[in-house]
Amino acid sequence: MTTLNSVEFNYIGIIHTPFTTLDDMPIQPGGASGVSGTLVLDPGLEEGLVDLDGFSHIYVIFHLHKTHPYRLTVTPFLDTNAHGLFATRAPSRPNPIGLSIVRLIAVNANILSIENVDMLDGTPVLDIKPYVPFFDEQKTVRIGWLTGLKDRAMTIRTDGRFK
Amino acid sequence: MTTLNSVEFNYIGIIHTPFTTLDDMPIQPGGASGVSGTLVLDPGLEEGLVDLDGFSHIYVIFHLHKTHPYRLTVTPFLDTNAHGLFATRAPSRPNPIGLSIVRLIAVNANILSIENVDMLDGTPVLDIKPYVPFFDEQKTVRIGWLTGLKDRAMTIRTDGRFK
After folding, report:
1. What is the pTM of this model?
2. Domain count of chain A?
3. Nearest to B84 among A9, A12, A47 (CB)
4. ipTM > 0.85 (yes/no)
């Protein structure tokens, strides 16, 4: 890469969840089904939430702010084999950006009540986007090493490898 | 927000697409069906791509680097009514982070051949994640102001409002 560069993003909000430590967290929203949290947006951005309550689900893009230095080969929770980092959702990445689809329960002023939260309490928010199936869902899909691992993904919790 | 803070991300790659200007671009991957591009990853990160080729689709998280200052109320392409910015996918956002699901055709060394690209040529990449339906698809979904607008979303192109 001849001209690598960088960008700085300001946090636009913070997420509160029941998960105050990196132990015993769900690793995906599917494993956090029904777990409630709140997303407190910077009050100065409240006007940007108008009509968001029409959507049942939103993407939350966030900073995985408690991760460790990344390794390019990782053994994820769901497998005993190593894989390339970008073939996993491991949180320690060159840019530790988290992406979760959560259920939007209510919007009150600058506070979003959300469900299916799989983030650590205090996680900084970078962006919110509406979840729109016809933009985002794909039909015929291959999922590589994750094939057959759905049930494990829905139940497994973090351990020492969440880093 | 009492303790807003920020984070700096280094670009990890660059996307090449046929779209060299902000005119006449598709506004979502669904409208870019079959359009080919390449994602050139920083060669130093190539090891992180191992096993990614098992996945048919990937999330690309990127910097919408050509956007204009944001406004909290916007009238999106797909509507004549104004909506809160966060209830839209408008590119000009407090943090201009783009999220697209593209089809992964092949991985050769540090170069990914991808399809359904809706990004501007030269777009900087922030992260790559595998697309996994059982992590990400939601069942009963409401989509607010976008209800009934699917056909328009698949065909519309950018105009002066892409900013």
Report:
1. 0.91
2. 1
3. A47
4. yes
